[in-house]
Design a protein that fits this description.
Layout: E1 4-10, E2 15-22, E3 27-31, H1 37-47, E4 50-55, H2 61-64, H3 67-74, E5 77-81, E6 90-92, E7 97-100, E8 103-109, E9 118-122, E10 126-130, E11 133-134, E12 137-138, H4 148-157, E13 167-170, E14 180-181, H5 182-188, H6 197-203
Length: about 210
């Protein structure tokens, strides 16, 4: 049983919006809607899917701009991590499970890029990494609410320890390919070269 994944390039910042669905049950979730919302609505209609949730990997504007409109049009409930300061219907914490059709998303709290960043592992097959991990890079840690020390803990303590076979679906198309795997990123991503936290902070440009 495989989920149906739609990866949608949107906007002028190389963002990805995602839809994943259970075809058998006709139920779907929309992840990080921002621009080009017609692409979301068209995909839902064309496939006969009902959106159960809008899920945000974090609360930066380029990942949440479409929340209210998608929720209004589809009736979907908005899900965010409890650290988010934005309006939502459901809040989640590390280790929580989100059910869509027959599939389950496991929530991994991965702060660093933002306090409310999460990665979402779908039934041990793939992971939506938001702006925590990109193909060949990681999210910025010089923004308000960012923390390079937390990013280190998230990348090396959580993300790099996930099943290497998981397909990585990032929040932006900043790499050479639109997707990757955890194993490939651990082996080739220069951000994931083994380092102590002190070395990582120096690498990220943080001085004592």
């Amino acid at each position: 049983m495989n989920p149906h994944i739609v990866q949608i390039p949107v906007g002028q910042m190389a963002n990805f919006t995602y839809i994943f669905a259970d075809d058998d049950m006709g139920q779907a979730a929309v992840i990080d809607p921002s621009w080009d919302l017609d692409k979301i609505f068209d995909s839902l209609k064309r496939n006969g899917w009902t959106a159960k949730y809008v899920i945000n990997t974090h609360s930066h504007f380029d990942h949440v701009l479409g929340n209210e409109q998608v929720a209004k049009v589809t009736g979907a409930k908005i899900i965010q991590h409890k650290e988010s300061k934005l309006d939502r219907d459901i809040e989640v914490s590390d280790g929580d499970t989100i059910e869509v059709g027959q599939f389950k998303l496991q929530v991994h709290h991965t702060p660093g890029h933002s306090k409310d960043s999460i990665c979402l592992v779908l039934d041990g097959q793939l992971v939506f990494t938001g702006d925590t991990l990109f193909v060949g890079n990681c999210g910025r840690t010089d923004l308000p609410g960012s923390d390079p020390a937390e990013m280190y803990d998230s990348l090396f303590g959580k993300v790099a320890k996930l099943d290497g076979r998981l397909i990585v679906y990032p929040g932006h198309h900043y790499g050479t390919t639109p997707t990757s795997t955890i194993d490939r990123e651990v082996k080739t991503n220069y951000v994931l070269v083994p380092r102590t936290k002190k070395e990582f902070l120096e690498f990220m440009g943080v001085s004592d």
